[in-house]
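Duplicate of earlier report; tRNA-dihydrouridine(20/20a) synthase input re-posted below.
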Amino acid sequence: MLPAVTHNPWRLSVAPMMDWTDRHCRYFHRLLTRRTRLYTEMVTTGALLHGDVPRHLDFNAQEHPVALQLGGSEPDDLAHGAKLAQQWGYDEVNLNCGCPSERVQRGAFGACLMNEPHTVADGVKAMRDAVSIPVTVKHRIGVDKTESYEFVRDFVGTVADAGCEVFTVHARNAWLKGLSPKENREIPPLRYEIVHRLKRDFPALTICINGGVTTEEQIADQLGHIDGVMVGREAYHNPWIMAGWDQRFFGDAPVHRERCEVEAQMVAYMARCVAQGTPWSHVARHMLGLWNGMPGGRRWRQVWSDHRLKTLPPQEVADLATAARLGRQAMSASSALAPAVGD
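Output:
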């Protein structure tokens, strides 16, 4: 049975995903769910120390609640990043201890930090001393072939002693050698029971689960064991699954909104982005799953993906896409592009 609805801010969230969960993606997701917590792509402390800070941190006010995920290991650098997160108005700063990519390992952060729990604890303490917003950690259940429960239990215990109260646990090991990041999301076996046991052993902590959860039924089942569920690629590829989350999992009134209304709001947002110098294609790529599984959805997606249409205003492309989805002959001022809407 699903537990009674609570005001736990981490009850549902969309995972930080590199190259995907940028501010345009998060704006789109917020049109589908008001309550689900959204995370940025991982931003490294080096990027905030030496790069274009506004480019990395700017976001739309409509995105709240939104969290910044940091990648790094040096306490002073993490504290600096956390301060910027708070100054920019983020609701949380999250430390990445779960990414298995070799590039991240070369920076001595991500999943390899699980082998150094005291380093993580030092970073968490530095961030907590620097800011008042929540400091959280996302991590795996183990590294390489280390599958003992004691490994992840001691990691959580050490980091919790430094003041971290919220842990999001990807229920797979991170294999640091021999697997790509994509394979690391699929090959190491899911062991949900490890995360459930963490919640039993640390009842005062907020424990959230990540990995392999794709349906509302699976979300409801997990919420019977732990405090929150983080959904990743399923939310990106099939975003309409989020449209019912506020009502089912937060007890909110249903959002009476159709897919075509969400698309219209995104088209208006694209027009604003174009006026500010951002090509609409940088935005549209995030909503390509909006009509997945619906009649005409593939034809609609083909139109929005057609590079030949990038010079047209977003409203004209939307008209072509709707015509294609409904099976009507596409008519526009650029009639030469009409074949792009066919199968």
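Confidence is low (pLDDT under 50) at residues 330-336, 338-343.

Merging into the original ticket.
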